[in-house]
Amino acid sequence: RPQQRLDSLDHDTTMAALRPKTEAEFEEIKALLWTFMKEDIYPNEQVYAQQCKEIGHRSNEWVWPLILVELKRKAKSLGLWNLFLPVDSAAAAGIHGALGGGYTNRQYGELCEILGTSSHMEFAAQATNCTSPDTGNMEVLARYGSPAQRAAWLVPLLEGSIRSCFAMTEPGVASSDATNIGISIARDERRGEYIINGSKWWITGAGSLHCKIMILMGKTRTDGPVHAQQSQILVPMDTPGITLVRPMEAFGDDDAPKGHMEILFEDVRVPFENVLLGEGRGFEISQGRLGPGRIHHCMRLIGNAERCLSHMIRRVQERSAFGKQLSKFDSILQDIARCRCEIEMCRLLVYKAADMMDAHGNGDGRTRQFLSLVKAHVPMAVQTVVDRCIQAHGAMGLSQDTPLMSAFAGARALRLADGPDEVHWRTAARLEIGMQRQSPLNEIPYYKKPSTVFRKSTDPISTEMNRLVAEYSKL
Fold first, then answer.
1. Distance linking the first and last C-alpha atoms of the chain
2. What is the pLDDT of residue 363?
């Protein structure tokens, strides 16, 4: 089923213009995706890893590995394309079934989990145009971009002909508090341009030559309400003044050819019309972006955990120690059961958050709380699951012969990459405190204290008790 090229976007499209996929359509695409994974993704994981390594070592001109290009073309021809784009965002962008999309967040949760069973965890996601940070950027453009901005950047992103990055984190401040983001975005009224100066780092995807557009969050004013000082600006990657300083390494890996770059901005100029939604609305955009895109990682992590548990169970049935098969040891059996329990808890938490987004959108307080709970709990739980799987493999679990170390590093990194655990727990707790004020249980008082007291120091003691105290004291 070849995909239709999207030449224009109707900004006035409503939700009614794009119906969600039926259950039969969903089951069909899920079966097709499993076939694609088995026939094309799993057999090529080592080819992909080797080609990525060669590209990183060869030069500073990073492009897609050839195997990924081939798989992208095949996935697109099969209709396994832009599966992430939820029905409401697709409708907002005017996408009537063109270039994929149209699944509910809940449906995509299952599809994304399947994608996450690949190693590298985003290998299959990249092949189907469902990878970060493009997914979040495409949703931002779909929801908040002007017709001109969407025509210039959303269309080629949906088509997969370019990639993008999102520049938020800064080396000089604690970027987990977004009010600290301070890269300067000054106005040049005479030329009608913004001038950007400062540094960013851990900018995912910026190292690739396919990355053509950046969404940058920075400060357009230094006074007024603290949440109205930041704006999000579209910055083409070929704009003069941008220096890719170095790829940042996580666990010694530069993640070529995608990369997580440190970037220097020196008098980088873009026109006023490159601002998204309007000056001072950066936080507003972020709140919209923090929904589906921010739990896609967690959906993939569940698939990764399933892959690792499968390897663990195979391993403990193949190996023996101290006279019996590893799978016969109670400690191993308990680890397997705990892994299954934790994976299922993660899955239920993610599915509930996805259902809530489908029903209430991203702005609902309870939905925001569940998104925070997902982001705080799932990476930590999956890290624990993968750690058990590594332990069951012994030294092999640390080696390049399994996907386990890659999975562990991915889960551990996501406890920071999508905001630190502590921020997500804090958000969830603050929302909980606010919602408890509206709870009918909040009106239930503590039990009343009894009106009588147990005993006063001046109360007379009975003769019998005085006799017993004296008798028992004779040791």
1. 94
2. 79
C-alpha separations of 309 from 31, 39, 161, 314, 391 in Å = 22, 21, 36, 9, 12
Q: How long is the chain?
A: 475
H-type alpha helices, 79-133: 87-92, 105-115, 123-127
Residues sharing a CB contact under 8 Å with residue 466, sequence separation 6 or more, in sequence order? none
> Do residues 139 and 162 make contact, with C-beta atoms less than 8 angstroms apart?
no
Single pTM value for the model: 0.90
Q: Is the confidence at residue 1, as pLDDT, over 50?
A: no
The DSSP-derived string for 283-312 is: HHHHHHHTSHHHHHHHHHHHHHHHHHHHHH
Q: What pLDDT does 3 receive?
A: 39
Asked if the peptide bond before residue 271 counts as cis, ω within 30 degrees of 0, the response is no
308: confidence class by pLDDT, cuts 50, 70, 90:
very high
Q: Identify which of 130, 131, 207 has the alpha carbon closest to the alpha carbon of residue 167.
A: 207
**Residue 187 CB burial class (10 angstroms; 0-12, 13-18, ≥19):** middle
Token pair for 224 = 């007024």
Q: Is 90 exceeded by the pLDDT of residue 442?
A: yes
Residue 345's H or E segment, with its range, is helix 330-360
Could you tell me the two tokens for 454? 């147990």
pLDDT digits (tens, 9 = 90+) for 240-261: 999 999 999 999 999 999 999 9
- Find out whether the peptide bond into 147 is cis, omega within 30 degrees of 0: no
Taking only the tens place, the pLDDT of each residue in 20-76 is 788 899 999 999 999 999 999 999 999 999 999 999 999 999 999 999 999 999 999
- Phi, psi angle pair for 55, to nearest 5°: -65, -45
For the chain, how many helices (H) and strands (E)? 16, 9
Residue listed under structure tokens 């690792």: 308
DSSP per-residue codes, 391-439: HHHGGGGGSTTSSHHHHHHHHHHHHHHTS-HHHHHHHHHHHHHHHHTT-
Segment among 90-99, 185-194, 303-312 with least mean pLDDT: 90-99
Smallest CA-to-CA distance from 300 within 10, 37, 35, 25 is with 37
Give the tokens for residue 88.
């409401």
Question: Please, which residues have CB within 8 angstroms of residue 371's CB and are 6 or more apart in sequence?
Answer: 290, 291, 294, 295, 353, 357, 362
Nearest alpha carbon to residue 336 among 405, 389, 394: 389
Question: Are 304 and 341 within 8 A, CB to CB?
Answer: no
d(CA 135, CA 214): 13
Higher pLDDT, 50 or 86: 50
Helix, strand, or coil (residue 247):
strand
